[in-house]
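Possible regression after last week's pipeline update?

I re-ran a chain I had predicted before the update to compare outputs. Posting the input and the new output here so someone can diff against the archived version. Not blocking, just want to make sure nothing changed silently.
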Amino acid sequence: MKISTHINSKTENDLIVKLVGMGEQTIYKLADIASITKLSESLMPAFPLSEQELVDLVSYLEGLK
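New output (post-update):
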């Protein structure tokens, strides 16, 4: 399985991550992880957002509070 995530913290035995698109943290045992690769580019789209798309995005994010 391959996942894209933000690493919140790492201990001697565990990797604590916040999965992209999810609000909660997940703990994985380092012994169960085959490899960790840092992305060379952002998960955000390379194309710019229009003004309306930006307004819609901010409105959506504010609604998540």
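Follow-up from reviewer: compared with the archived run. Residues 15 and 62 are 29 Å apart (CA to CA). Marking as no regression found.
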